[in-house]
Amino acid sequence: NGGMNARSCMDRPHQFRWTNRPNKYQLIVPRVSSERRHYIPVGLSDREIILTNQVQAVYDPEPHMFGILNSKIHMSWVRLITGRMRTDFRYTAGLCWNSFPFPDISSKEKEAIFQSSISIIQARENHPERNLAALYDPDKMPEDLLAAHTELDQVVDNIYRISGFHDDDERLELLFDLYAKMTGGENA
């Protein structure tokens, strides 16, 4: 009952009624991100950071999920599927993340993604004077960060297809085949 719940908060008017927080850490995905970026700057933080309504969070995900959200194949899906705020990407969990086809993978593959995604975090930390917006400006992206993303892309692409992909069109073709199977669509 909403009224009973509200009354139970009367002795703490300075606090939010509900607090959604992770047990350990969270992935932070901006709701709106520049269409110019090659990657959406997904963040990682501990549970002490309180998020605003300008971001979405994945609470206590498996460690490899940071790599998936930072991969080129996920970005290919975002570019095509996501809504828009003017011309920028408007990321939503329902439209982008929940519909994103990701195959069942082994613990060895999860570990490979995780290890590769650590390079992204390390490359970001090499540039403490820059925030994520500056790091992911396509005209000024540091070479070590771009190299870390390229390494991650190879790992993730090879999980989807051993031979990798030549371009986003090939990625999307495979993703839509997987999506059809995932949803019971045509050729499922």
What does this protein structure show overall?
The protein is α+β, with helices and mostly antiparallel strands and 188 residues long. The chain has one domain (20-183). It has helices spanning 2-7, 65-69, 72-81, 93-97, 107-125, 132-135, 143-160, 168-183, and strands at 25-30, 32-33, 43-46, 55-59, 83-85, 88-90. The strands form 2 sheets. A 3-stranded antiparallel β-sheet has the order 3-1-4, with no helix packed on it. Strands 2-6-5 form a 3-stranded antiparallel β-sheet. Strand 5 (83-85) and strand 6 form a beta hairpin. The mean pLDDT is 89.
Write the layout of secondary structure elements.
Blueprint: H1 2-7, E1 25-30, E2 32-33, E3 43-46, E4 55-59, H2 65-69, H3 72-81, E5 83-85, E6 88-90, H4 93-97, H5 107-125, H6 132-135, H7 143-160, H8 168-183
Antiparallel strand pairs: 1-3, 1-4, 2-6, 5-6
Helix pairs in contact: 3-8, 5-7
Percent range of helical residues: 40-55%
Largest sheet: 3 strands, antiparallel
Which oligomeric form is depicted? single chain
Distance linking N and C termini: 42 Å
Shape: globular
SS elements, strand count: 6
Regions with little confidence, pLDDT below 50 for 5+ residues? none
- Strand ordering within the main sheet: 3-1-4
Task: Please tell me how large the radius of gyration is.
Answer: 18 Å
Give the amount of beta strand, in percent. 5-15%
Derived from helix and strand composition plus strand pairing, the structural class reads: alpha+beta
Query: How would you state the average pLDDT, rounded?
Result: 89
